[in-house]
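Good morning N.,

You mentioned wanting to compare the apo and holo forms, so I went ahead and generated the holo version with pyridoxal-5'-phosphate. This is what I fed in:
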Amino acid sequence: MQRVFVSALLETYAAFPFVLDHGRGDRVWDEEGKEYHDWYGGHCVTATGHAHPRVVRALADQAARLLFYSAAARLRVRESAAEALVDFVRGAGVEKVFFCNSGAEANENALKLAIKQTGRMRLAAFEGGWHGRTLLALSVTDDPKITAPCAPLLAPCARLPFGDAAALEAFDFSRVAAVIVEPMQSMSGIRCAPPAWFQRLRERTAAAGCWLICDEIQTGMGRTGVATASELLGIRPDAITLAKGLASGVPVGATLLGVERAAAVQPGDLGSTFGGGPLAMAALIATIAVIRDEALMARAAAVGARLQESLPGAQVERVHGQGLLLGVRTRGPAAALKRHLFDRRLLVGVSSDPSVLRLMPSLAVSDESVAALESAIHEFQGNA
Ligand SMILES: Cc1ncc(COP(=O)(O)O)c(C=O)c1O
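and this is what came out, ligand included:
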């Protein structure tokens, strides 16, 4: 029986109907001891799985050594984390990093730098894009239920159709400080566009002196099978933003810049008391080491490819996305499949498209969880 209790928390989110107690790898357990396969990954966060022993040990060791010091002091762990991250994402052409605490803040920082360096006061983004809830991030987000209440306070932002080649040619990027784009639009249902479209976006923005910011808060950290989706798409943005999987669940965001943009940053341009804190830095170093040592990018690519083949059937029209950022497009309402999966102890995400469920599990998702998902979805569509 579900326990009903009164919470002091504001009701801002429709939570799972249980109280979560603990997690290990790609599973979580509720307070009653029920086990779930976690294909939601705490909203695309648990890159190395729940409580990976190396991440836990790195946190414990760092906590015992130095729990916190701000950017006022140089810390070896922060320098090492920056070096490890820049090396990890090298294929996207970014070379310097600023650490903050969340995805929204990482985007806010990138947009702010673009505004300062170009002197332009307009932004551009795409229909269906989702970038966070702080004011500049909200200005570029296409989600009227959260943008409308603040509409008069938002920065001017042109909104272009995602993946539309003609719109790209018609738009004048020379009046715009930055255009921000998700390499795969997650919230709106894992919407993809061809690499050639992204490459043309890069060409047009570069020619107009407009920053291209790739919001890789979901697609980064190896989730698509490559360190960044920018690398996969063959583009070198002015800035890349990361968060979610960066430190396996310890809050951290990162704004990464190409060398030219980084050279123009001045002391005081960005700041954050908690950004780059030693706990997050230790978890980040361990996360990158686990992704490399356990070949999790190859794992993400292989499992993603398998599910794109194995899941479609009578009720699942197709599976789109790349690696372990997948949209399961249903022929009927996706909510019915979500309920079916929940009843079989499989957690998945929804999207703003009522026909798309999202899969964004640990990159180390087990064969057992893959088989459990396949068999539950086959059962749903009568091809068990
Ligand atoms: C693509 C994308 N950008 C930005 C954000 C905002 O990140 P945060 O919730 O850490 O502020 C999210 C969060 O879901 C996201 O999916």
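The mean pLDDT is 97.

Happy to go through it together on a call whenever suits you.

Best,
F.
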